Amino acid sequence: MKLQPLADRILVKRLAEETKTKGGIIIPDTAKEKPAEGEIVAVGPGRNAEDGTKIALEVKVGDRVLFGKYSGTEVKIEGEEYLIMREDDVLGIVQ
Amino acid sequence: MKLQPLADRILVKRLAEETKTKGGIIIPDTAKEKPAEGEIVAVGPGRNAEDGTKIALEVKVGDRVLFGKYSGTEVKIEGEEYLIMREDDVLGIVQ
Amino acid sequence: MKLQPLADRILVKRLAEETKTKGGIIIPDTAKEKPAEGEIVAVGPGRNAEDGTKIALEVKVGDRVLFGKYSGTEVKIEGEEYLIMREDDVLGIVQ
Amino acid sequence: MKLQPLADRILVKRLAEETKTKGGIIIPDTAKEKPAEGEIVAVGPGRNAEDGTKIALEVKVGDRVLFGKYSGTEVKIEGEEYLIMREDDVLGIVQ
Amino acid sequence: MKLQPLADRILVKRLAEETKTKGGIIIPDTAKEKPAEGEIVAVGPGRNAEDGTKIALEVKVGDRVLFGKYSGTEVKIEGEEYLIMREDDVLGIVQ
Amino acid sequence: MKLQPLADRILVKRLAEETKTKGGIIIPDTAKEKPAEGEIVAVGPGRNAEDGTKIALEVKVGDRVLFGKYSGTEVKIEGEEYLIMREDDVLGIVQ
Amino acid sequence: MKLQPLADRILVKRLAEETKTKGGIIIPDTAKEKPAEGEIVAVGPGRNAEDGTKIALEVKVGDRVLFGKYSGTEVKIEGEEYLIMREDDVLGIVQ
Q1: Residue E25: inside a domain, yes or no?
Q2: How far is CA F73 from CA E90, F9, G84, in A?
Q3: Which residues contact G6 (CB under 8 A, 6 or more apart)?
Q4: pLDDT per position as a tens digit, C6-36
Q5: How far out from the chain centre does Cα F86 lie?
Q6: Are strands F3-5 and F9-14 parallel, antiparallel or unpaired?
């Protein structure tokens, strides 16, 4: 069982933000909004352009991404917590 | 008797949100807005693009979908409660 | 004598909302905004697309439609009350 | 001497709203915004589309129209009061 | 020496608004925003459409125009006061 | 050393606004926002249209321009103060 | 390890703003929002136009840029602080 996001939405598994992540990104502890890190587990088919064509996403399943701390909507699937957000909420891909 | 939604609207039968649903999705009990689950019972013919063509919906009758808890407008048809919402209010399809 | 709506506007005769309507739709009595039911008595020629072409309406004279309770502007024609609204205010067609 | 409206604007002579008009439209006396009735005395050449072409108006000089009570800007020409408004402020044509 | 307006801007010499103007327009003294009258002394080359082409102005130097009382920005050139405004602020041309 | 503005931005050297400028423009002393005068010292390559083409600027280096008093962002280059603003902030070219 | 920005975003290493920078730009100490200076260390593939094509960025890795003081989102990569922002936040390139 899985969840298929619509349009330009993606399903993200948030990574623990208390520790230094595998990717080596350390989230600074300041007053500004801080980005969070996660792994993409499902992607939508893409955004609909005005002329009806699909614009494919730049991100893909397996990408580790940074996104705004308060981006997306939380959902639990088979006991695991995920986030559904739009691709535009993704700041960058960790490589 | 039924209700035919216009444009990119869909008619959704909300599923009980107190229990673990058949699809296995458990809605987490947090302060953030939580998505609800439902089954699509009717879909509109699609959104009108700027050039007048129809952009068909991605969802179809029978799809089980997640949507924002406060999305849509309530309506009763022959004693049953439904929600009319836009396809864009749908976060993803449960598979 | 009649009133010809402009562009994507329609003229609607509101149906009594206190009782169960002929179409079998019962409006639930909740705190949320509730849709109202009416019959279309006149339609405009359609919305102007950016390139100047007309986009014809999906609804037609005689359709029974649901719309937001506070949609439209009231007007009296020969003693009868009507509502002028945009097609986008219509949630669905009762069939 | 006259006033030539620009783009999609029209010049309207408001009709007395206290009495039942010639067209038979009676404005209901409720708390909602009520439309007013007038006759078009001049029309602009049309709105400019994004590609520079003109989109001709649907209304023409002589049409009796309904419009929002607070639509338009008042102006006096040779002692007579008129309203300048956009065609989109017109709700419908009285026939 | 003169001022060349950019894009769809025009330079207007405001006419005295206390007296009945040559054009015969009398500004009514009500609480609503009242239009003012002026003569166009310079026009821009036109607005840039999305595809980069110019959309020429409808008004030209010498036109007497009505515009919203608070439209535009005041500027003095060689001791004379003018207004710089966008063509869209013009309500109509006095003929 | 210089600063190359991006897109439709320009770099402007503000002229003293206390005295009558060379161009003969006297800024009136009223409560309304008053335009300021400056000389363009650098221009960007132009705005990106929706289809990816560049829309060249109407102004060029050396033009004396009027702009809104609070337009732009201040920056110091080698001890001299400049303003970076968008071309749309320019009201007109002094000739 | 690095961070690949999405779409029209860029990754910027902020330069110390207390001293006169190498590029010779001195940030004035006024009440207005002051621009900051930085060096671009990574750029996204470009913004998606409405028709699905990419619009390449004007800036490139190595460019020294000015940007609004509060632009972008802070992130730490391997102990170093960076800013992720959109290209539109860049005011100009220091040359």
Answers
A1: no
A2: 31, 11, 21
A3: A58, A59, A87, A90, A91, A92, A93, G44, G45
A4: 999 999 999 875 445 556 665 555 444 568 8
A5: 8
A6: unpaired
d(Cα E36, Cα E14) in Å, to the nearest integer? 8
| Residue closest to C8 by CA, chosen among C93, C86, C92, C89 | C86
Count, residues in chain G: 95
Report which DSSP code applies to A79. Answer: T
As given in the structure block, the two tokens for residue G54 are 């990419």
Looking at the domain assignment, is residue A36 inside a domain? yes
Domain region containing D65: 9-18+32-94
User: Both tokens of residue E60?
Assistant: 């030209």
pLDDT tens digits along E21-66: 556 665 555 444 568 899 999 999 998 777 667 888 999 999 999 9
Q: Print the SS3 string covering B10-26.
A: EEEEECCCCCCCCCCEE
Residue of E24, E51, E93 lying closest to D6 (CB–CB): E93
Tokens of B9: 């609207």
Closest by Cβ to D66, choosing from C3, C48, C52: C3
Q: Is D73 on the interface with C (CB under 8 A)?
A: no
What's the CA gap between F73 and F90, in Å, rounded?
A: 14
What torsion do the CA atoms of B83, B84, B89, B90 make, to the nearest 10 degrees? 70
Query: Tell me, what DSSP letter sits at residue B28?
Result: -
Give the distance from CA F52 to its chain's centroid: 25
Task: Using CB atoms, pick whichever of E24, E66, E91 lies closest to residue D78.
Answer: E24
The pLDDT of residue G84: 95
The answer to whether the CB atoms of D76 and E28 lie below 8 A apart is: yes
| C31 located within any domain | yes
Q: Which two tokens stand for residue E84?
A: 């710089």
* G26 vs G23: CA distance, rounded Å: 9
Q: Pairing relation of β-strands C9-14 and B9-14?
A: unpaired
F73 touches chain G (CB under 8 A): yes
Q: What is the pLDDT of residues F42-59, one digit of tens each?
A: 999 998 777 767 888 999
ipTM for the assembly: 0.75
- CA-CA distance, B74 to F68, in Å (whole number)? 50
Token couple for D20: 């039942």
Is C89 part of any domain?
yes
CATH number at residue D44: 2.30.33.40
Domain tally, chain F = 1
Sign of the Cα torsion C74, C75, C79, C82 reads negative
